[in-house]
Amino acid sequence: MNHNVKNYPIAKLIADFDGTVTQKDTISSLVLTAAEHRNDQDDFLERWEQLVQWYVSQQESNVGKWLSAPMPEKHLIDFLKSFNPIEQESLLRVTRHKFLFGLTKHDLQQLGRNVLKRKGVANVLKELQASTVEIEILSANWSRTLIQSAMGELCDQVWTNSLVFDDFNKSTGEIRQNVTSAQDKLSFFERYRSKVGKTLYIGDSITDFLAILSADIGVLIGNNHVARQVIDFFEIPTVSVTKKQKYNPEIHQSGIILLVDSWSDLEDFLRSK
Ligand SMILES: [Mg+2]
Q: Whole-model pTM above 0.85?
């Protein structure tokens, strides 16, 4: 029995990284650092801005297409799959334009050290570790090194993508892909969830939804607008921890999303009785 985790004893916590552990997405900081190594910075950053705009507009129009009118025959899993071609095309463009070329491990470690984490996250993770809860990160980020550097001792394992390095230890611009979709997150989650006890998954966006819904305790953190729209559209049951909605641990089951505003809300939920 974990003495600090009274309400919902868990054996493992698996967390998304960007926007869940961190305050902001770290993807563009990778590209901005890569830009510092170039002598065509202005053109490079303009091309990057174009790609970001393209990506955002593709995402928005896909969300709009799906959620504009009630379509009861549509399923959450099909909705999430419909983002895969956008994600794949975006990864292709990132590689083709070498937006991640020339980064050193030192660059990535420094970026990781400078990442701003959400308030309270380090305390919660340390406390859980002290209660022998395993902590793992499951992320669609592009750099394992960045995440490892940001997390340090706060996690036991990182599941994500990696940049490819050449013989001189510089990134080639290619990405070794492991986790790029909601389905990938679900597969990793299913493979690595605790074999001995309950697993909590916490994420902030729709890419996390399948893992959240599969977890023993599935948590959505923050106020991601699309995530909230999707919950409403697909009528996914939720319980707001932040608003202290009554909730009985004995009847908890997968498929209910717990909504929290912060890591300290989650801490209160796990501990208090
Ligand atoms: Mg995220």
A: yes
